Amino acid sequence: MSVAKVLEVISTSSKSFEDAVQKGVSRTTDSLTDVTGAWVQDQKVVVKNGKITEYRVNLKITFVLKEKK
User: For residue 62, which of 5, 29, 30, 46 sits 20 to 30 Å off, Cα-Cα?
Assistant: First the structure.
């Protein structure tokens, strides 16, 4: 039987929400193995002078813990 853990990650992009998600997942998989999924918990934008300058996402990323030996 496997056990999974959920990690919260906040990621940003100047391009889009999709790019922010991609960056968050990519950076997480650089540090963790056995990432099995992610979902967007929240989205926000930063607005300056009437223009969107930053897209932000709060991600919940699931990964499986290694089995005890």
Answer: 46
Those residues whose C-beta lies under 8 Å from the C-beta of residue 9, and which sit 6 or more positions away, are 24, 27, 28, 58, 59, 60, 61
- The amino acid present at 30, given as its one-letter code, is D
Give the tens place of pLDDT for each residue, 37-49: 999 999 999 999 9
In whole angstroms, what is the distance from residue 35 CA to residue 20 CA? 17
Which tokens in the block code for residue 44?
């926000």
- DSSP-derived secondary structure letter, 66: P
Distance CA 9, CA 58 (A): 6
For residue 56 the two structure tokens come to: 């932000």
What's the one-letter identity of residue 27?
Answer: R
| pTM (whole model) above 0.85 | yes
